[in-house]
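Components:
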Amino acid sequence: QKEVEQNSGPLSVPEGAIASLNCTYSDRVSQSFFWYRQYSGKSPELIMSIYSNGDKEDGRFTAQLNKASQYVSLLIRDSQPSDSATYLCAVNIRGGADGLTFGKGTHLIIQP
Amino acid sequence: GAGVSQSPRYKVAKRGQDVALRCDPISGHVSLFWYQQALGQGPEFLTYFQNEAQLDKSGLPSDRFFAERPEGSVSTLKIQRTQQEDSAVYLCASSPRTGPSGANVLTFGAGSRLTVL
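Structure:
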């Protein structure tokens, strides 16, 4: 089992709807969780971080964390065509200094 | 500099050639990470530097891969005797912090796309 799992998609969502992206992780002691957006041919860009159970909202984005169930999700409200990208879930596995462990990413397509 | 700079942006190598990829992190950033991103995959950790010290190289896939950061700023990732499976985008990221929180605030470079024929 990979340490960070995501459905690779593509996930197709109509413009204006809510896009829901999910991620599960294997290491119970993980403390830090991140969502990156990556446009084709570009580098990952951090859009959300979350450290505590519950919801964290930032504009149209809401990150949700459930440590007991070992999943983290990202909701994008009022989806726009510019949100079409690959969304990478990243976890600071074991809280170490050795960087983040990324999932494969979910390819999101917002249909105009 | 304003961001993390990587060069070359694109590199085509014949199988068996050696390549060197350069990363110039944000000035003053003590932590530097290298990641490998194959097509359709997420970035995979390769190695981590804190200043000039290479604290973790557990992600380097073979002894053909070597990284250095001799003066604690610019880093070079060298791949010897390249193989087709080395074809990927190599991402460099830097952070102003060390320790566990150093991984939490990363700025990525644009990457170096390596194609091995």
